[in-house]
């Protein structure tokens, strides 16, 4: 019996483990210290009341034989939810049939499992810095990876290099970790490149709800030609506080075909074989997110995080610390002070201001010298963290 | 861009689609017909009151900032649930550390995704007839499959052939579709064979809660040596009516190592990359299943299904129809009348008795000439179905 030897090439996932260890050690030495965590991108506000009501009602459905829901008729989601999501896309002027929307238990699962559809010899193009899952899931399959430099010079929004070969292309906009967001012209360049290369664009739109600048695309399908080359991964985690609920959706348009084969049909076959649908309760909760009441309520939570981001940006501006993100994203991507590596800056902020962030180096080579803070914290704590930073002059 | 070409080798999953079409066509022609569905293995009884209470409470947790649960600290399950499951295993005399138990969203997902750990050149041994997922998930990876005949002659409980090479071995006991269950001596032969072959046993115990005969093993880990060669897949779907809730657990003992590599560690790495844990609500509901109250309540539901099975077995005995299963399983595996193929018998029962079952041919070559009925139906409907069968003399 031979193991998948590609696992040997995976780096250990030290990042958040190391952070947790350092924080625990500091807290032990300084039991009185009030540490403020702006590191992990997890939400802190409770679920919207409309979602809570829908969940209680769904639990009651499961308590009675007449309304009990067993296996969902389709591993890709109940029609009520797929239709609600198709309705949401109309906000962006994107027309989708519910059958082009596949409900899953989160963007992370779908991003990873989607790779089952592709040969292991394809060349993968991944921006650096990046959400580490894109890299690790391809390393597990032994696919060759080419990195694309996202740097201060290109505003962390690299554009395609027409001379470079790629089969699978990852884009995340608004970006994790940098918070930078592509405009329509830039995404058009990517769509044109993917069509020319006959490549697939794996577009991660998990943070679209945080876009505030008018005119920026919320969906890759706002771009002409995208339905022929792109799939889009979305999540309710950050949008509606579903990090503990587990629900996302992936869009595979009918036009997305390679050699006559529909990727949507392949994905349906993959999921039908290795997945049995998202919990009925979760799907009912997700449906409530897309009602007018649910939308109003989740916008309130998002506005609260956006206010945190504003508070943080103002403090950074006053301090003269260069950063990206914040405007269209819950993430702020700070430049570390001259000469400090991202782990040095981590230690510095922990020790001198009791603030926990994420060292940019954890997101790839180009993340060195940068640092991620999230706007998902409690508002009072976020203000206190910025006050500490300003007292420090740093 | 090249697709995973192995998808071309997948048979279309016609089975339940074809059944649904035939039933719909019959109902359209006979709108007055009262069709009784004993085909798909889905439960019909609502969730246990203890589970319902736990779910409502968990929903309330998600409604308040102080008790809100976001990302679970570990994609492999909350300690409260892993500890509860370890406690359950003590019923079988099996000692497990909670860290050896991995909570997932169902046995189907875990069975499929587990294959990420293994090289694609391994030889897979799969009994026939069988749960089609074992076959399809390996076909998707292009792994060579050797089938093992489960027939009336061997009581649908094939034993290892020491001369046959295997790397990955699938066993399901009590079996889907045949309902046959291995005893300890038979499982010992499989464990000895796996150890001798240095193979991995993928043991599907999804139906263990339906075992009634004393002395039959509920877990492969009751067998000496199993911790060195086996992993066990379990599910709350049939045990606690969780088909729509999505929760299962997979046991990878610490001793399960190949070339010094712990399969549990590899699985943890796989899940950490491509999965973000089971919904907090579901895990709280699952925890309630393992309380004394929850156990008493789920045993009542199982007893109801077992009573259905008893009614069915008595009818088949009176009719002189040969079958296996029913005693230790919610499935009954009937021999079709002489000369009738399993699809012929399907049509016969639908047209003459308005009973829907599952043609054995859908489970593999050796399923031809056999037919599966499930005991998961409503008790009154199950009795009515058997009365129709007896009136038919068939």
From TrEMBL, chains A, B:
<dbReference type="InterPro" id="IPR015422">
    <property type="entry name" value="PyrdxlP-dep_Trfase_small"/>
</dbReference>
<dbReference type="GO" id="GO:0033362">
    <property type="term" value="P:lysine biosynthetic process via diaminopimelate, diaminopimelate-aminotransferase pathway"/>
</dbReference>
<comment type="similarity">
    <text>Belongs to the class-I pyridoxal-phosphate-dependent aminotransferase family. LL-diaminopimelate aminotransferase subfamily.</text>
</comment>
<feature type="binding site">
    <location>
        <position position="246"/>
    </location>
    <ligand>
        <name>pyridoxal 5'-phosphate</name>
    </ligand>
</feature>
<dbReference type="InterPro" id="IPR015424">
    <property type="entry name" value="PyrdxlP-dep_Trfase"/>
</dbReference>
<feature type="modified residue" description="N6-(pyridoxal phosphate)lysine">
    <location>
        <position position="238"/>
    </location>
</feature>
<dbReference type="InterPro" id="IPR019942">
    <property type="entry name" value="DapL/ALD1"/>
</dbReference>
<comment type="subunit">
    <text>Homodimer.</text>
</comment>
<feature type="binding site">
    <location>
        <position position="176"/>
    </location>
    <ligand>
        <name>substrate</name>
    </ligand>
</feature>
<feature type="binding site">
    <location>
        <position position="71"/>
    </location>
    <ligand>
        <name>pyridoxal 5'-phosphate</name>
    </ligand>
</feature>
<keyword id="KW-0808">Transferase</keyword>
<keyword id="KW-0663">Pyridoxal phosphate</keyword>
<dbReference type="InterPro" id="IPR015421">
    <property type="entry name" value="PyrdxlP-dep_Trfase_major"/>
</dbReference>
<feature type="binding site">
    <location>
        <position position="131"/>
    </location>
    <ligand>
        <name>pyridoxal 5'-phosphate</name>
    </ligand>
</feature>
<feature type="binding site">
    <location>
        <position position="276"/>
    </location>
    <ligand>
        <name>substrate</name>
    </ligand>
</feature>
<dbReference type="GO" id="GO:0030170">
    <property type="term" value="F:pyridoxal phosphate binding"/>
</dbReference>
<dbReference type="Pfam" id="PF00155">
    <property type="entry name" value="Aminotran_1_2"/>
</dbReference>
<feature type="binding site">
    <location>
        <begin position="235"/>
        <end position="237"/>
    </location>
    <ligand>
        <name>pyridoxal 5'-phosphate</name>
    </ligand>
</feature>
<feature type="binding site">
    <location>
        <position position="276"/>
    </location>
    <ligand>
        <name>pyridoxal 5'-phosphate</name>
    </ligand>
</feature>
<feature type="binding site">
    <location>
        <position position="131"/>
    </location>
    <ligand>
        <name>substrate</name>
    </ligand>
</feature>
<feature type="binding site">
    <location>
        <begin position="107"/>
        <end position="108"/>
    </location>
    <ligand>
        <name>pyridoxal 5'-phosphate</name>
    </ligand>
</feature>
<dbReference type="GO" id="GO:0010285">
    <property type="term" value="F:L,L-diaminopimelate aminotransferase activity"/>
</dbReference>
<feature type="binding site">
    <location>
        <position position="372"/>
    </location>
    <ligand>
        <name>substrate</name>
    </ligand>
</feature>
<feature type="domain" description="Aminotransferase class I/classII large">
    <location>
        <begin position="34"/>
        <end position="389"/>
    </location>
</feature>
<feature type="binding site">
    <location>
        <position position="108"/>
    </location>
    <ligand>
        <name>substrate</name>
    </ligand>
</feature>
<feature type="binding site">
    <location>
        <position position="14"/>
    </location>
    <ligand>
        <name>substrate</name>
    </ligand>
</feature>
<feature type="binding site">
    <location>
        <position position="207"/>
    </location>
    <ligand>
        <name>pyridoxal 5'-phosphate</name>
    </ligand>
</feature>
<feature type="binding site">
    <location>
        <position position="176"/>
    </location>
    <ligand>
        <name>pyridoxal 5'-phosphate</name>
    </ligand>
</feature>
<comment type="pathway">
    <text>Amino-acid biosynthesis; L-lysine biosynthesis via DAP pathway; LL-2,6-diaminopimelate from (S)-tetrahydrodipicolinate (aminotransferase route): step 1/1.</text>
</comment>
<feature type="binding site">
    <location>
        <position position="41"/>
    </location>
    <ligand>
        <name>substrate</name>
    </ligand>
</feature>
<keyword id="KW-0032">Aminotransferase</keyword>
<comment type="function">
    <text>Involved in the synthesis of meso-diaminopimelate (m-DAP or DL-DAP), required for both lysine and peptidoglycan biosynthesis. Catalyzes the direct conversion of tetrahydrodipicolinate to LL-diaminopimelate.</text>
</comment>
<protein>
    <recommendedName>
        <fullName>LL-diaminopimelate aminotransferase</fullName>
        <ecNumber>2.6.1.83</ecNumber>
    </recommendedName>
</protein>
<dbReference type="InterPro" id="IPR004839">
    <property type="entry name" value="Aminotransferase_I/II_large"/>
</dbReference>
